[in-house]
Structure formats: C-alpha cells, structure tokens
Design goal:
Helix content is 39%, strand content 14%. It has ten helices and nine strands. It has helices spanning 2-9, 43-51, 68-71, 101-117, 152-158, 169-175, 193-196, 206-220, 223-237, 244-256, and strands at 14-17, 36-40, 59-61, 85-89, 122-126, 145-148, 161-164, 180-183, 201-203. The protein has a six-stranded parallel sheet, with helices on both faces. α2 (43-51) links the parallel β2 (36-40) and β3 (59-61).
Length: 257
C-alpha cells in the first residue's frame, strides 16, 4: 500500500498483480489512484474491479502466472476413476485460523475411521509446505496411509481422486483432469468459488463420498462437465496456455511507455 501511494504521488505507472484466487476487489476503494493498473486472473475479477469504479482501460486479464506450469502438463482423464488411490491435500488448518484444534482432531478421526473401513484403498496425505508432519504422526507406519511432501503434480497424476478442504491446489487438480471432492465437515466452504462452480463433489464425510461418488463420476465423464469447466477457466483463470507470465511482462512494457 505504501508503494502504491508513493508511486501515485510521483505519477509513476504501477501494475498491481493479483495474487490470491477468488479475491474480492470490492473491499478496497482504489479509484483515486489513476496511475494504477491491474493484472487480474479472469473476467470475473475484472468485473468486480469495474464495479468499484476502475475503468476497464486499466484492467488487464492475464490468467494466473503461477498456473503456467499446469499448462504444460498433459494429464488425461482416467477412464475408471475409483477410490483406490486417494490424494488428500493437507493445510495448516489451526495455524491459519480455519479450524480449532478440536475440529482438526475430528478431521483426523474421520480419516482414521474411513481408512479402517477401506483396507483396499491407499490414502496419500500431501503435506502443505506450512503444515507439520507431527500432526499426522498417528498414521505413520500404516500400510494404506502415506504422509509425504514432494511434487504436487506427480501425486495428482497418480491419484484416482483428489480431496481437500479449501486448498487452491484443488483447482489445479481439477485442471489436470482429476475428480475433486471438497470435504466440508463443518459446513464452512459452501460459498467457495470452486464449490459454486458445480465441478466438485462437496461432502460432509468420507462415507458420503462413497455413497455419492458413482453419480458424480458419471457427471465428471460427461460433455456437460467439460463445458462447465471451460467456462470456469475462462471466468476465473482466462487461459491455461502457459503464457500468463508473458502477458504480464507485456503489460509492464506497455505501461512504461
């Protein structure tokens, strides 16, 4: 904010590059900063900015540069997705204030109960970079549960199903053609962008996933799903062509001139 104010006072063109997915620009009034330009992920974000009074001539839709790597991945849909290899995306739930310690413990119990009833399935818990291994120490050594760091995309490729709460990596799994389940144990994520897209299965328990998965997989393999995903990408991420960073660089060059 200080940099934006200083640049405004010196009449220096400034490009504000969107960082978070699902940002609501209506919370900040930036109309007075007439040398401030915006790089946003998708058409939806541009629309939100326009509603605050920012002219469209200062808003550029570029896509998300952090997803340029996804554009280079050539994953295909698995023909027979099942609950055989499950990827669970962890998060620092307590540290980020999303859950209490009691809620996190209920989450761990849910995992324990489900995997105890699914001995033929394998669960891979992909640690978030800021999550702690000790949180999952009770699962270490279990035959059908692995807790691992490592490359996210490799684990997505190997998975049949990807499950998370509100991780941004859920969208990446969706883009890489994996069925995505949103675990909402405490009825907190119903308004999340990816849930509202209709492209994921929101579940209140792992047992619910087992009951509803066949119907969801039928939708996942349909033309309707593909069309809805195409619209979701355009509205929120513009394109996954791997050129978002190049578009941002071009804007920087243009506003300098």
């Amino acid at each position: 904010k200080c940099v934006i104010a200083a640049a405004h006072n010196t009449k220096t063109p400034t490009l504000l590059i969107q960082h978070g997915v699902g940002a609501d620009f209506r919370r900040t009034d930036l109309r007075a900063f007439n040398m401030l330009f915006f790089s946003v992920f998708g058409e939806n974000d541009k629309s939100l900015l326009e509603k605050t009074g920012i002219p469209s001539t200062r808003i550029f839709v570029t896509g998300n540069p952090l997803l340029d790597e996804v554009g280079g991945k050539n994953f295909s849909k698995k023909k027979n997705s099942a609950m055989q290899k499950i990827l669970l995306l962890s998060q620092p739930f307590v540290e980020d204030g999303l859950w209490t310690k009691k809620q996190r413990n209920l989450f761990l119990i849910e995992i324990e109960n489900f995997m105890g009833a699914q001995p033929a399935s394998e669960l891979v818990i992909k640690l978030h970079p800021r999550d702690k291994l000790k949180t999952y120490r009770g699962f270490l050594g279990r035959k059908n549960i692995k807790v691992i760091p490592g490359d996210l995309y490799q684990h997505i490729q190997e998975a049949d199903i990807v499950i998370g709460v509100n991780s941004t990596a859920l969208s990446e799994a969706l883009f890489l053609h994996r069925p995505v389940l949103v675990l909402d144990l405490f009825d907190e994520v119903k308004d999340d962008m990816i849930v509202k897209s209709g492209l994921v299965l929101k579940i209140g328990s792992f047992q619910e996933a087992l009951n509803r998965l066949p119907q969801f997989l039928s939708f996942f393999h349909s033309n309707l799903y593909d069309k809805k995903k195409e619209a979701y990408i355009k509205n929120y991420f513009y394109s996954l062509d791997g050129n978002s960073a190049a578009r941002v660089a071009a804007i920087i060059k243009n506003i300098k001139q």
